[in-house]
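2 proteins. here.
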Amino acid sequence: KHGYVAADYEAEMRVEELKTEHELPDCQRVKLGTELFQCTEGYFQPHLLGILDTPGLIESVNELIDTLDREIRREIVAQSGSVFLTGSCSMFPGLVTRLQKGIRERHSAVKVVATPERKLSAWIGGSIWAKLSTTQSSWTTKEEFEAHGPSVVHSKCF
């Protein structure tokens, strides 16, 4: 509700007057400061969360683009040149701007696309997948689930 991605994490950490108040469901009020953007910084600096062997989001996207064959990369950039954000975790204010800036430093022609309906993309994709007649064999009925438990899902899908 209040979290966001800092455009410049180090600069934001130095801002002292950054505080907002939030009311919890039990009516207690808490003041939030750097927590507002520290929670999302893990996207960009996983080591802050104790994840030492994983690059951040910008580095991961840049490395992916770099691994493409030069011809394929040129064709992709010519066709759309876009990185599409999906899912509700991509809804944090500031994420698109920070990601765009980081990618453009290495790949100036690539743009980040984030449509408003991206928060529902998993549900939309799931509903489309469920309508396909070719997927009916992997459906699990209530009766199957009750008889065999969660393992029935894995046996049908994997």
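next one coming up
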Amino acid sequence: QQQRLIEMIRQGQVKEALEFVQEELPPLCEDNASFLSELESTLALLAFENLPQGEFSDNLEPDGNGAPPELRVLLAPLQRHKTAAELNAAILSSQAQEKESKLPMLLKMLIWAQDQLSHHARFPRVSSLVSARTEPPPPAPDPLDDDDLPLGSSSVS
């Protein structure tokens, strides 16, 4: 709800933001004192003009007419990411799943398994975790290559 209020304030929808606060948020503040503190900080943004409007407004430096850095942080992209992470965790929790995604651990396991397997076999490796691009296996060693023979041995009789 805080992020919704922040977006209304960012877009200059003061009347809508105040109506939203009056109608939707009182029950939440009664149950959670820390939410009331966050709400007060968010509403303090209404006192300032020239709030950043862009999608990537991460300039936290004070500019004479704008909000101080401790309030401008609410308008930064990091706040949206924080809200998204909290929402994702709540959805996963409501579905009786772990709050953290299993993907990062699975990718680490893939890297480890590839490293272990590379000592014993040739195989196509995943070279990019982002695009899932693979690279072909390295060429098989030449059985007649003198460099692979033990010392004192020679492939030429």
